[in-house]
Amino acid sequence: MIKFPEGFLWGGAVAANQCEGAWNIDGKGMSVADVAMYKPNVDVKDYVSQWHVSQKNVDEAMKATDDTYYPKRRGIDFYHRYKEDIALFEEMGFKTLRVSIAWTRLFPNGNETEPNEKGIEYYKDLFKTLRKANIEPLVTLSHYEMPLYLVNHYDGWVNREVVDFFVRYAKVCFESFKDEVKYWLTFNEIDSVFRHAFTTIGVLEEKYENKEKAEEAIYQALHHQFVASSIATKLCHEIIPGSQMGCMVTKTLTYPETCNPEDIYLAQKDNRVNSFYTDVQVLGFYPTFIFKEWKRKGFDIKMEKDDLDIIQKYTVDFISFSYYMSMVQSINAEQREKVGGNLTTGVKNPYLHISEWGWQVDPVGLKISLIDLYDRYHKPLWIVENGIGSKDVVEENGTIQDDYRIEYFRNHFKQIALAIDEGVECMGYTSWACIDLVSASTSQMTKRYGFIYVDADDLGNGTYNRFKKKSFDWYKKVIATNGECL
Ligand code: BGP
């Protein structure tokens, strides 16, 4: 029989920039998400390019008052409908909900000294509503967003001053929400700085004279995020006794294509890079290979005297991660069929099914990832994103028969249970996303993840009304039986 530990935190996840909408309401400033443009009719293989934003895109977006082509400005109007949505999550029996705070609701430009009270009021009520519904909030301080002002006037996280701005913002969050929020995360998928530098660290790569200079700037920005994350962890513990801070990474498990040692080495290299981000935040130090790489490339990453001490002293309490797919490395990659869609690309794995967006679905890989992470760090784990994006169809009778989603979750849940059975300490699971919202990488509505359907299309047409999909009742039963019905 499938067994999950008592008190296992079942729930779902969303992010402010993809669900709230209300981008210019109640004093909110513009964020990097508000300039992410939806491009109609883009082929799957080109989605990756939608992550890239140029200064021209930014300038145009700042002038645009119409939100038709900027879906993250609309989200799913969670800003106004959160009570209705939380009631649905409560009905499903959620024990936890992962949300993020939009930095720009509290500090519209990022560099103000005093926060916008309206922003604080909004989140205070959101967290109180969750508490009333017996749902434990898990809050990300920065989920793919930062004030656009800091990009335009400070070059984003490359600038050291941004560390202070973020720390001020984090402190206000801890002080304001200390009675409601115990579990926190600093940066969503901190490893994605190299996949989409604009969204995560506000770096416009075109500003740098060549690829190497851009890479150096990204490492500099990343270092600043590591320091900011450690200072935030320290403050969180000081301000909220009993609180827990987690790091958040994309778990990108890579397999070798064959037992050829060269394939194995290539896969090891990828996995090692993936571990770098957790090593810094969990173990508290930079792995030697990163310093070697900086030296080899002639990078001069500026650090202040206490930076490495701070990183070493204030490490996280738990490790959270997103898990969507696994990858394959091969020395013969050139001759192999590629997959990967909009997240990352690699060699096709003939043993796995591929989602509509080209992601290789691998439930066993989740078990392997849990075991890997637990054996390496011996810290509690929390799966904070996992799910399948698909073009759900509303039947004539109004139902949404998303059996493929049920299948996807069932297979993944069984693997989590197996990992737990092998001794892995797993605190909880929040599916991505528990309600349809705007896709991060494609800025589409049609890439749907939720147990709840939202009636809105890519260009914002629709009633925005919510409908339960077939998976809604299924997940409700999984939670009610703590996984035993699987
Ligand atoms: C993760 C992000 C989420 C989310 C998810 C699915 O990388 O943390 O914000 O959106 O991926 O990706 P997408 O929306 O591009 O399908």
UniProtKB/TrEMBL annotation:
<comment type="similarity">
    <text>Belongs to the glycosyl hydrolase 1 family.</text>
</comment>
<dbReference type="GO" id="GO:0005829">
    <property type="term" value="C:cytosol"/>
</dbReference>
<dbReference type="Pfam" id="PF00232">
    <property type="entry name" value="Glyco_hydro_1"/>
</dbReference>
<dbReference type="InterPro" id="IPR001360">
    <property type="entry name" value="Glyco_hydro_1"/>
</dbReference>
<dbReference type="InterPro" id="IPR033132">
    <property type="entry name" value="GH_1_N_CS"/>
</dbReference>
<dbReference type="GO" id="GO:0016052">
    <property type="term" value="P:carbohydrate catabolic process"/>
</dbReference>
<dbReference type="GO" id="GO:0008422">
    <property type="term" value="F:beta-glucosidase activity"/>
</dbReference>
<keyword id="KW-0326">Glycosidase</keyword>
<dbReference type="InterPro" id="IPR017853">
    <property type="entry name" value="GH"/>
</dbReference>
<keyword id="KW-0378">Hydrolase</keyword>
<protein>
    <submittedName>
        <fullName>6-phospho-beta-glucosidase</fullName>
    </submittedName>
</protein>
